[in-house]
Amino acid sequence: MSSAKRFGVFSTTFARHVAKKLATLTIGGVFVSDGAQRLRRKLAREAAAVKGVGPIAIVAHAYYPELLTEILKQRALLSGAVPLHVTVPHDKREQAEAIVAGSDHVHLHSVPNRGRDVAPFLSLLNAGELDRYDIVLKVHTKRSPHLLDGNIRRKLLFALLFGESNANRRVMNLFADPTVGVVGWGGCYHKNPAYWTDNKARALDLADRMGAGDVARLGFFEGTMFWVRPAALEPLRRLGLAVEDFEAEQGQTDGTLHHALERCFTIAAWSAGYDVLDLGGRVLDAGRPGGPASSGAIRSQPARSAGAVGQPR
């Protein structure tokens, strides 16, 4: 490809990226306003009953514990008593404890401040803490101070992923199909190769190690917030990554292990035969035909001790 053509592709991708950011700041800001959310809940029609799905939970990483109130408020919109597993840096545990005091079914896990939200989530996954759940919502207290739309993007993702009772039921109904592995907002799902940024070589190496080199391609939910079936992440779990494998926190914005893994959650699901869907049920990427999802070969393992994860409450 000529230099001029490469520049043209980059310019087009950058323009689309800026357009998405502007849409988040404008339309997204209106969407997540208190008034708009109250209106949508008032006008919402009763959704169909939830089909057969097993236990669900929320896993939230709380680098900013003060934002846990947003998660607790929206958890109430989910049907039943939904456990909330909160991973929190050691030095912020007391703050988190004070915020969740009096809330039922909340489990705190103290973790090193390493690997952002990804390393703590994998620690829970690897330790068997998520084996008891059929579906898990992965979120975190995103602020991204280096991004203009960081706060609005968090509120928008929270609203879309678990902000309304009827929408929550629709997500549960999607997971009634056992071949569905990951469900997220299509607006932050990226397939353009430009979104590999500085992570392509490392992500593809991880894919090879998962036995997924033949299906490895770009397609991921930017920001690592989505609904996921823990069984779909078994290839990722088999890597056995530990917190110590992640770089020390230095405010990095790209090129780290957790940035590469951000692009591997979906690769793990595809390689196991699970589909990736948007919140409306559209298939964003289909799982590998004949994979373990269709044969039932992947099953959750018996729960193991979470000693390395932290101190559950």
UniProtKB/TrEMBL annotation:
<dbReference type="InterPro" id="IPR007739">
    <property type="entry name" value="RgpF"/>
</dbReference>
<protein>
    <recommendedName>
        <fullName>Rhamnan synthesis protein F</fullName>
    </recommendedName>
</protein>
<feature type="region of interest" description="Disordered">
    <location>
        <begin position="289"/>
        <end position="313"/>
    </location>
</feature>
<dbReference type="Pfam" id="PF05045">
    <property type="entry name" value="RgpF"/>
</dbReference>
